Amino acid sequence: MRLVYTDQNRLLVEHARNVVENAGIEVTLRNEWVGGASGEVSPTAAWLEVWVVEDADEQPALAAIEAAQRTTDGPDRVCANCGEASPAGFAQCWNCEASF
Ligand SMILES: [Zn+2]
Could you give the domains of the chain? Predict the structure, then answer.
């Protein structure tokens, strides 16, 4: 198991998880349920984390995330369906899953 991504913004972590999964790599999330308990643990410990199951997948996963982040530069996309903003690299609205 290797940690490949974590961020304070759970949305970005979910996105990274999707990116890695779409690359055919098996991943697991940690701290998925502690987001509401950040008063009891340090903020960093409560960050959602993406881990690859196989150590050998670490580098391909990091490369996939990096490639995806390059495409997220630019203004947020505002969903025409629900009005929520998603980072530019998202192909779907994070909120209602409408395609952009
Ligand atoms: Zn939406």
Answer: 2-74 (3.30.70)
Whole-prediction pTM: 0.63
Give the pLDDT band (50/70/90) at residue 62: very high
pLDDT of the residue at 58:
98
Distance from the CA of 54 to the center of ligand 1, in angstroms? Answer: 34
Q: Which two tokens stand for residue 69?
A: 């982040």
How far apart CA 88 and CA 100 sit, in angstroms, is 10
Q: How many C-beta atoms surround the C-beta of residue 75 within 10 A?
A: 8
Rounded CA gap, 80 and 41, in Å? 37
Phi, psi of 70 (to 5 degrees): -65, -30
Alpha carbon of 96 to ligand 1 centroid (Å): 4
